[in-house]
Amino acid sequence: MRALVVDYGGVLTTRIGPSFASWLAAEGIETDTYTEMLRDWLGRDAPPDSPVHRLERGELEVAEFNRLLAARLTTVDGRPIVAEGLLDRAFATVRPDADMLDLLRTARTAGLRTALLSNSWGNSYPMDVLTPLFDVLVISGEVGMRKPEERIYHLTAERLDLPPGQCLFLDDAQPNVDGAILAGMRALLHTDSAATIPAVAGLVPALADELREGAS
To answer: What InterPro entries does this protein's entry cite (predicted)?
Structure first.
């Protein structure tokens, strides 16, 4: 492996699910309507023009997505959901994962090329933190394609100037991992840093050497 390609939300940050769960509870949103929205807009059978897919490809403004999402969900007491700032509230408790950021720094020290490959929900990325860690940044809304479309993995490999087979991809969503494998990359499903870091080290000897030196 000559490159490490990573997702952002849920890989370089704390898990997304607990933040959304806190938001649902705080605003009294019916969980059934949220689950149905995920199935219809983001599930494997979701149409390519679903609001989530359009948002991720940069075809839908965040404000309009917020309005569509607020209209789709219901609250337990019938109160309307405030659309303005909805996604900001949903992601409010997501924080950086220091161990995964350190893994990227170690990967660069070990001579690996690095790329961010992220499906954006209109998120504000901390570029002051991310830019020094990556050779390549591929954000779905900026390139008009999204994971798990095969072409976005090929684009990332091209920008790294490497064949897909020399890239190891990390993501917390199984469909995106499957898409990377279909595109020719090696890929691992990220659950937490305690599991991912040794798994990556097992596939990249140079990185394993750097991690051992750092621990000594």
So the answer is: ACAD10-like, HAD-like_sf, HAD-SF_hydro_IA, HAD_sf, PGP-like_dom2
Host domain of residue 52 = 16-90
Tokens for 88, please give them: 């900001």
The tens digit of pLDDT for each residue in 14-27 reads: 999 999 999 999 99
> pLDDT, tens digit, for every residue of 110-125?
999 999 999 999 878 9
- The residue out of 68, 90, 112 marking a domain boundary is 90
Which residues share a beta bridge with 151?
none
Distance CA 155, CA 148 (A): 12
Total number of domains in the chain: 2
Separation of CA 44 from chain center: 17
Give CA–CA dist 176/118, Å, rounded.
Answer: 10
Sheet containing 136-139: give its strands across. 136-139, 113-118, 3-6, 167-171, 186-189
Asked whether 14 and 20 are in contact (CB, 8 A), the reply is: no
CB neighbours of residue 200 within 10 Å: 25
**Shared domain check, 110 and 41:** no
Mean pLDDT of 140-148: 97
Burial class of 82 by CB neighbour count within 10 A (0 to 12, 13 to 18, 19+)? exposed
> Is residue 2 within 8 Å of residue 207, measured between CB atoms?
no
Residue tagged 């059934």 (tokens): 32
**Helix-helix angle 193-203:205-215, to 10 degrees:** 130
